[in-house]
Every structure is written in C-alpha cells, then in structure tokens.
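Recap from last week: sequence in, structure out.
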Amino acid sequence: MTLSSALNSVQSIFNTTAKQSSIVSTNIANVGNSDYVRRQASVTTSLAGAQVVTISRAQEDALLTQYLQSNSKDSAQQTLLSGLESLKSLVGGNDYETSPSTYLSAFQQAMQTFATSPSSSITAQSAVTAAQDLANSLNTASDGVQSVRADADAEIASQVDTLNSLLAQFETANNAVKAATTTGADTSSALDEREKLLKQISSIVGVTSVTRSNNDMALYTSDGTVLFETIPRSVTFSPTSTYVAGSEGNAVYIDGVALTAGEGSTTDANGSLQALLQLRDEVAPTFQAQLDEIAKSLVQIFSESDGTSSAPGLFTWTTSSGAAGGTPSASDDTTGIAATISINTAVITSQGGDAMKLRDGNISGITDLNSSDDAGFTDNLDSLYQALSAKRDFSSDAGLSTSQSLMDYASASIGWLEEYRSGATTASENTTAALSRSDEAYSNETGVNLDEELTLLLDIEQSYKAATKILNVIDEMLQSLLDIAS
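Predicted structure tokens:
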C-alpha cells in the first residue's frame, strides 16, 4: 500500500465515523421521543475505503398499522366512557342519589305516610315537597342530558377543525417525503413528521394508509372513504349551539360522505368523532326518552277525570309551543316533557294552594272525590300509591321493557345507564391494554435503545482511534522521508 492510498483510507474512515457519530448522536438525543424512528448508517467497503452509502430508518409498517388501529379504538372507547361518566354524574354519581328513581322512591314513601295520616297538613306538605323534588330531578337530568349533547356537538366541531388542520399539515409532510425520495436525499425526518401526523389523525377518525410510488401516501377512513389522496379531502360539519329534547344534530361529512356513529357499549367506532356522534345521537337521546317516559307516566297517573274529560292533577307540563299540556295519551308526542314537568300551583301553599287537594282529588278543579270533606279520606291516596307500582305500558323507543311498573321502570333506567357505563369501562380497559401493547411492540422495533446506541458509539470511537494511529504512522514515515531527502 502506498502512502497516498493509506491517507485516502484514513480520510475515508474519518468521514465514515463522522457520519456515524452524527447519526448516533441524533438517535441518543431522541431517546424517549415516541415520534422519532431510529436511524442507522449502512457502511460499505471498496478499494477506496469504507463509506456510508445509505441512512436507513427502522420502519415497521405492519406494527404501525396495528398501532393506528389500536389508537383509533382506544380513542373512541375513552371518548364514549367520558360521556357516560358525565351522564352518570347528572344523577348523583356512584350512588345515584339525585336520580329520578331515588326521588320517585322518596315520593312514594311520602304518599304512603300521607295515606296513614290523611288529616295532617304536615304529611300533605311533605308529599307535595317530595313531588317537587321529583319534578326538579327530572328537569335537572333532562337539562343535563341536553348539555352533554351540546358539549359533544361542540367537541365534534373542534375536532373537525383539528382534523382539517392535520390533513393540511399531512399534505406538506407528504410532499416533503416525495421530494426527498425523488432527489435521493435522506427522507427520515420527513417520514417522522408524516408518521406523527398520521398517529394524531388516527385518534380522531379511523384511518388506513396506502403507500404508492415515490413514497406517496393516500389515506382512507375505516369504511373506505377517501381522506387524503394527493390533496386533503374536505371534512365539514355545521355545529348546533343549543340542544333541547328532540333536536337532531348535523352529520359530519368526509369527502361528501356522512360519517356513521358508533354502536354499543363496546363501541365499534374508530376514532373519537364516531364516538362523539354515538354519544350525541344515540346514548343521550335514549336516556332522554327514558326520562320523558317517567315524566309522562307521572302526569298520566296523577291526572284527574270527571268521566267525560281529564286534566293534569299533581303534575303538569308545558308543550314545545309553551302552552300548558293536557293529559298525554300513548300516541301523543311528549318529547322533552321531563324538562318542563312541574307541580300544580293548586297544591303549593306558598302560592296560595292547598296541599290537601292531593288527598281529595280536586287539584284540577273538574272533580272532587272527597265532597264530604272527610278528614280520614284515603281512597285517592291509596289508589295513587298503588298506581305507582302497577304495571303500565311504555314506549319501545326508550330501550327498556315496555310493560312494567313506573317504580321498576325508573330503576331499570338507572340500570340501563350503569350497565352501559360498566360495559364501556371494561372495554376501555381492554383497548387501553391493546394500545399499550401495540405501542410497546412498535417502540421496541423502531425506538431508540440508549444502551445499544452507547455501545455503537464505543465501536465508532475504536474505529476513530485506529484511524488516528494509522495517521500517526503515516506522519512518521513522511517525516522520515523528508529527513532522508534533506
């Protein structure tokens, strides 16, 4: 080997170790960065010496696909569970102490106490107060359900904006990847950026990716709708600021196709958008329907009739037009009745009413069952008490049994919510575990291991030291030649 060829070899080693050191240093600087994929220099040797020919990226497409699916599922499940927890808090949390079911039980007990002491104005007032508490609980729960729907609608609008922004950023990152691929430049940083955006998109909407020629990537939703192909596809949504019972929210459109809502406590939704639609359009309206059935039954049970006509008695309500509601029949539209149910002022003492009218059955003014004003009259109270536990018909739209007592129906409503929430909780634990495993598997293959990088850095250091020793020998030889020549 000539001195010149030896010098070329040393220079090649220095150039190679410099590039390797730079790559390892970048890897070490990104330890713990979940959006960074490890790089590695591919070194080859020739007569000209060693040199870095490519910088490879530890890409694992199969594991990334699994992560994206797990991320979408977990995001949807957590979103649904959060909404169910909000509904649960409306009715008192773990013990459901402020639920209509709890107040209905208290009201039934107050009615029983009133029946045992029908001449007592105190027990009469207690029964009316219990009825007021029951009506208030229905009002509060109904308003809360609509608030949950409004919050979900606002969150949908926010996430649609975020999704459009992410897709715009994805276009920039995708173009950078294509440009780097075309020119033969290192694509690692551009690929990292594109992958980071893909992860964020997957938490909002289920997404599948297809990599085409020139490293171009197209995105589709879980149901096959085009999300991104060369350019972002439009994601549109018109928010609704105010919700009342019966309000229908607007759909989310992706490239003109409506996004479907998820179904079930173990939701089949992919991404938070579908789960929010499920909460707004399926779960909350069903619970509202149950509240309305309870309120409707109360008005019906306590209505008064003279044989030819009937009118609301203890419980009254207001129609959507603002007019006083009559005694609803099975076919009447009573959507939102839980939000407007109230106590007839005829029995409210503070407003000039007489609580004893509840005993006598003449709250509406069209009948008087106790015309003799018997202080021990209990027929009406007994009848009303028994009616609360008697079987009656309910609408099938509310998701519960259509034939049971009002007391059982109110309890079943809480049971429905708790069962839904419990199922969602179990499912959320499973999706979280699945996401954790997917993340770990992907990180193990593509993430930076500090121990491995430090070991590699020591190997590079040894190569550098060897090159330094060769350079020192060459220097001594050249010096010897100069000494001889002089």
